[in-house]
Design brief:
The structure holds 2 protein chains of 2 kinds. Chain A has helices spanning 2-12, 16-35, 38-62, 69-75, 80-102, 104-111, 114-118, 124-153, 163-191, 195-208, 220-226, 230-244, 250-283. Chain A is an all-alpha fold. In chain A, helix 3 runs antiparallel to helix 5. By secondary structure, chain B is an alpha/beta fold. Chain B has a domain at 250-322: Alpha-Beta Plaits. Chain B has 11 helices and 13 strands. Classes of the chains: A mainly alpha, B alpha/beta. The interface between A and B is large, with 42 and 45 residues.
Chain lengths: 289, 344
């Protein structure tokens, strides 16, 4: 009978593969709900350009042409349009991950499904992971759209050989960022209405990252702080790979640093998340608003 | 000997202030609340067990502990022999949780089929096994034709059916139904009760823990009922035995026109227990009383004499019946409240 096969499947469900399968199902569900709101889709397509265009206009107003000698001196890249276009593309991805994933538990609570989700045998962290998968796809598509439009509209040129190294660095950066996101999810679990903390963390990470300006223009203490941010290394190396190609000097250093940050942030984030979730269950605060 | 599907043993859950809150004036923080205060009961496999109690008695807290959503301060709980605190994932495979009165447990922009598929995936079911299970459940709940409509187009009754289907998607041994008929109209409520009785319990032999405020629901469905108050069980028995716990006697529902406080006092003085009294909303001069008496004949005489002894008072109606579960509930919880107040 179908029901006994069902029960067998449920009992046998365990291991990483099951969690990834559940995370994928969560990701697909979020897509389905999001795409049922047409305006949401329109916003998703237009949003990356709303950040980029003002920056291009600002750059045009202070620059005499498409090249900047000062930028070349500080970063080795003289094409400031390409510099900003690629950086702001990653900014969109970052915000998608931080906001979309960090607030995932709160969203489920607002929908009314959080407690029900917590009664299933998925790992608590899988709920956040599923949201992260969706936001990675969401933000990733945004990066592709923005870069494609930038090449067409603003004459941005990308080094095709740099795509794979860029993706590799991006993958390492996203993994480390996921550790940060788990910590953000803890804040939301406890504070409930923690959007201002999420906003602060997201904005601070972006401030420290060379999305639209080189690190050298930051005060020395912010430059020092930026070394601990995975976003800093990711943006720098991703852009260098796409502009300078696979031989960009920053690539290897960034990859090594990101591997170290992955090894620190992910276990730390997961541990914090697990402890916070247990604390919330002890206090009976899961369903509180 | 039947095995126990659910065991709660001396569960305690106290909500306390956080240390820093104690520096604030009292009106800014909650006093200590003992949501569960040594709660203990066992439910046999295949049994339907009703959990009745006033608001704040601990019903939902009990469900949350068994569902692995809440960690008690002490005591143990077991579902199918598994502790949901130490082995939550194992326990959750065997438990289905359905909370009534909250239609937002589903994703309104997804169809019924998409919702069930999603929840099935979370339980590790996929492929043709999942699709057949979904078809089975949709047919069981008479929702096959609406399977591909989005939830937001459903009525409350239809939504509740899909919520119940979701709770069954993984074919659990134990179902925790937290107020499953809340918010349903009488017809939908009756259909839900019929389903639980015939299909869930009769055919599938699931173990069901049911919390409800509705006495008739508890009475109709439950093999045994526990009445809880202040976080502990104050009575546990079959519905029939519990009715007799309403301190025996006879219940009289009386309507008197122009009754006043002196008349009510006269009734009490004559040995009649006033269980409840209230004025009719449309005619404030009409007072409805529910009285309990040891002897029916004596009570009738006392009521008539009391009414005749008060000018302007008129006896409009009087119904005599055996104590109901509601009467037992009110009696037992009142007793419990008085004991709690005395011990405070």
């Amino acid at each position: 009978m179908a029901s006994s096969k069902v029960f067998t499947r449920v009992i046998e469900r365990r291991g990483l593969r099951s969690e990834i399968s559940a995370a994928w199902a969560i990701s697909v569900r979020i897509w389905k709900v999001e795409l049922s709101y047409p305006l949401s889709l329109l916003w998703f397509i237009l949003m990356p350009f709303l950040w980029l265009i003002p920056m291009v206009l600002a750059g045009s107003s202070v620059s005499t042409g498409p090249d900047s000698a000062e930028l070349a001196r500080l970063t080795g890249i003289d094409d400031w349009v390409s510099y900003i276009a690629i950086g702001t593309g990653l900014m969109g991805l970052t915000l998608s991950i931080i906001w979309g994933t960090g607030m995932s538990l709160r969203r489920e609570q607002n929908v009314g499904t959080l407690e029900t989700l917590m009664t299933t045998p998925i790992e608590r962290s899988t709920l956040v992971l599923g949201s992260a998968l969706h936001n990675l796809q969401h933000g990733g598509l945004g990066v592709i759209l923005q870069l494609a439009a930038s090449t067409i509209l603003f004459g941005v040129t990308l080094n095709a050989w740099g795509v794979f190294p860029a993706l590799a660095v991006l993958a390492l950066g996203v993994i480390a960022l996921q550790g940060v996101v788990y910590a953000i999810a803890c804040v939301v679990m406890v504070a409930k209405q923690g959007w201002m903390i999420v906003e602060f963390i997201g904005d601070f990470l972006i401030l420290l990252a060379p999305t639209a300006y080189p690190l050298a223009v930051l005060p020395w203490f912010l430059q020092a702080a930026s070394l601990a941010s995975p976003l800093t290394w990711t943006v720098e190396a991703f852009r260098d790979a796409l502009i300078l190609g696979p031989g960009a000097p920053s690539l290897l250093t960034a990859a090594l640093v990101l591997l170290i940050l992955d090894a620190i942030y992910v276990p730390l984030g997961l541990l914090l998340y697990k402890r916070t979730e247990t604390w919330v269950r002890k206090r009976g605060a899961l369903s509180q608003f | 000997m039947t095995n126990s599907a659910i065991v709660c043993d001396k569960l305690i859950k106290v909500y306390r202030n956080r240390r820093w809150e104690k520096i604030l004036p009292p009106r800014y923080y909650l006093k200590e609340i003992r949501a569960l205060d040594g709660l203990s009961f066992e439910i046999a496999e295949g049994e339907v067990f009703g959990l009745l109690g006033p608001n704040g008695a601990g019903k939902t807290t009990t469900i949350q502990v068994l569902a692995g959503l809440l960690i008690p301060d002490s005591g143990t709980a077991r579902v199918c022999g598994i502790d949901p605190v130490t082995h939550p994932d194992e326990a959750k495979r065997r438990v289905g949780v359905v909370a009534g009165g909250n239609p937002r447990q589903l994703y309104n922009k997804l169809t019924a089929r998409e919702n069930l598929r999603y929840w099935g995936h979370l339980y590790g079911i996929s492929g043709h096994v999942l699709e057949r299970r979904i078809d089975e459940l949709l047919e069981l709940f008479g929702m096959t034709e609406r399977a591909d409509d989005v939830i937001e187009k459903f009525s409350a009754g239809m939504t509740q059916r899909i919520i119940l289907a979701r709770g069954l998607i993984h074919d659990p041994d134990v179902l925790l139904l937290d107020e499953p008929t809340v918010g349903l109209d009488p017809k939908a409520s009756r259909e839900m009760r019929s389903f639980i009785k015939k299909r869930l319990v009769g055919e599938s032999e699931k173990t069901v823990l049911l919390t409800t405020h509705e006495m008739h629901v508890a009475e109709e469905l439950s093999d045994r009922i526990a009445i809880i108050n202040h976080g502990r069980v104050i009575a546990l028995d079959t519905p029939e035995a519990l009715r007799k716990r309403a301190n025996g006697g006879t219940i009289l529902d009386v309507e008197i026109l122009n009754a006043n406080g002196r008349l009510l006092q006269t009734l009490s003085t004559n040995g009649l227990q006033v269980l409840s009294s209230g004025d009719d909303a449309e005619n404030p001069a009409l007072t409805r009383l529910r009285l309990r008496a040891e002897d029916e004949d004596t009570a009738l005489q006392q009521i008539i004499e009391a009414v005749l002894g008060h000018r302007d008072a008129r006896l409009i109606r009087m119904d005599v019946r055996e104590p109901s579960l509601e009467d037992a509930f009110v009696f037992l919880t009142d007793q419990s409240d008085k004991e709690a107040a005395a011990n405070a």
